[in-house]
Amino acid sequence: MQIKFKTSIMHLEDLPLDVGYASERVHVKDTNNTVHSLGGQNGKTQLILTTPVIDEMFTQELKKIEEILPKGGEYEVTASIIVANNYHKNPGLEGFDFLIDSDEEFGDYYGVRLRGEPYNNEFAKALILISKDGAIFYDEFVDDIDKEFNSDTLMRKIYAAQTCYTGKGCH
């Protein structure tokens, strides 16, 4: 997959996991070096966002996404921003955990690592929605880093992921 930023063209290093495949539990760290587990079946809907750059435009987009996320109760969605390295600054949004793939486990398994300049070895601008049973329910890889995610589709997919889950394995 090619990813554009202004006049540059980059590509994904590996193929991303397809929708329907089981997600892998991976370990990432926060800014205090505390290890967190993401992916896999944990009984919660998980939203994972990656980006090669955290700027004001991306932060505003995250705020819009934060507004549509269910909070608390049976339909809570845990949300995380994962970056490739510790050069990135935490945008400090209450609804998102800010995590760093310091061991390169997440980027390698989920196929989000970019090759090519200007963001070589950073992560693509992507979102991955993992259902309560640990399956990848929806993903979106933005083909132009300046484009926003489709929040209308994301909202529908979150609802679908939560209402189809039976707690009995495959849905």
Question: Care to describe what's here?
Answer:
The protein has helices spanning 56-68, 105-110, 151-163, and strands at residues 2-5, 8-12, 26-29, 35-38, 45-50, 77-83, 97-100, 114-115, 126-130, 136-141. It has 171 residues and is an alpha+beta fold. The protein has one domain (14-163): Glutaredoxin (3-Layer(aba) Sandwich), CATH 3.40.30.10. The strands form 3 sheets. Strands 7-6-5-9-10 form a 5-stranded mixed β-sheet, covered by helices on one side. A 3-stranded antiparallel β-sheet has the order 1-2-8, with no helix packed on it. A two-stranded antiparallel sheet has the order 3-4. A hairpin with a 5-residue loop joins strand 9 and strand 10. It is globular. The two termini are 29 Å apart.
Distance between the termini: 29 Å
Say how many strands there are: 10
Return the domain count: 1
The largest beta-sheet arranges its strands as: 7-6-5-9-10
Q: Radius of gyration over alpha carbons?
A: 15 Å
Proportion of helical residues: 10-25%
What is the element string, with H for helices and E for strands? EEEEEHEEHEEEH
Overall residue-averaged pLDDT value = 92
Beta fraction: 25-35%
Assign the CATH architecture: 3-Layer(aba) Sandwich
Main sheet record: 5 strands, mixed
Shape: globular
Keywords:
10 strands; Glutaredoxin; 27% strand; 171 residues; 3-stranded antiparallel β-sheet; 3 helices; alpha+beta
Characterize this entry briefly.
This protein is an alpha+beta fold. The chain is 19% helix and 27% strand.
